[in-house]
Amino acid sequence: MPLMIKILCTRTISNELIQQAASKNIMIDVKDFITVKPRMQEKDIPFIQHLISRKEAAVIFTSKHAVHTLAEFISGENVHKGFPQWNIYTISHITLKSVSLLFPHSVIQGDAGNAGGLAKKIIEDKTVREVNFFCGNIRRDTIPDTLKRHGIRVNEFIIYETIPVPHFIIEAYDGYVFFSPSAVESFFSANEIQKQKTCFAIGETTASAVKDKADNKIIIAKEQDAANMIASVINFYQ
Q1: CA-to-CA distance for 215 and 210, rounded, in angstroms?
Q2: Which of 134, 162, 190 finishes a domain?
Q3: Domain count for the chain
Q4: Residues 114 and 217 in one domain
Q5: pLDDT tens per residue, the chain (238 residues)?
Q6: Rounded to two decimals, what is the model's pTM?
Q7: One domain, residues 133 and 76
Q8: Residues near 203 by Cβ (< 8 Å), separated by ≥ 6?
Q9: 75 and 173 belong to one structural domain
């Protein structure tokens, strides 16, 4: 019987995906290296409430956490009732899916696989002079810096907090799965990876974060969701 492949996943995934991997002789251990909490700032609430009623306001999302946090806020008891009719620019894949589901009355004006590509699409839309960027406390500077250089005003709202949860890993694994740059930072704050081991990243931005920490081989998922991440792991070891 072949040896079991051992993988550490740095974010919770479904038991179904764990069992799917196990059926291919791949054992996945899960440890969350970050936690995410809503953090709506009091000073921003009046502006956000006003923004809800502004048709065709330009809004940016770069994570599903921002999409879900804002949608929950809008549906809250103390917030103006109604569905925003915004022009939304979003990162593709799972964030795009979340936007389509939770903001059905808005128009998706553009999407891209990374922050640089999304900023480019916004700049190419010559009608955009001001954007509203909903993000977390740990976000990259690419979008706000690029847009500001092109004369576009950026209203930034930090609506959730990403908290590192480092774990010291004693057990040796054959591969390591990362879903965000924040999880990469948290993991490497307490651990190193042997050079012959393989890392799996959900996208280019996360892969870049891994490259900053290690010289290991990196496999990037074809689509940015958990199912495709685990499919990448299974395909690599088959």
Answers
A1: 8
A2: 162
A3: 2
A4: no
A5: 468 999 999 999 999 999 999 999 999 999 999 999 999 889 999 999 899 888 899 999 999 999 999 999 988 744 555 679 999 999 988 899 999 999 999 999 999 988 999 999 999 999 999 999 999 998 889 999 999 999 999 999 999 999 999 999 999 999 999 999 999 999 999 999 999 999 999 988 899 999 999 999 999 998 888 999 999 999 999 8
A6: 0.87
A7: yes
A8: 93, 113, 114, 220, 221, 224
A9: no
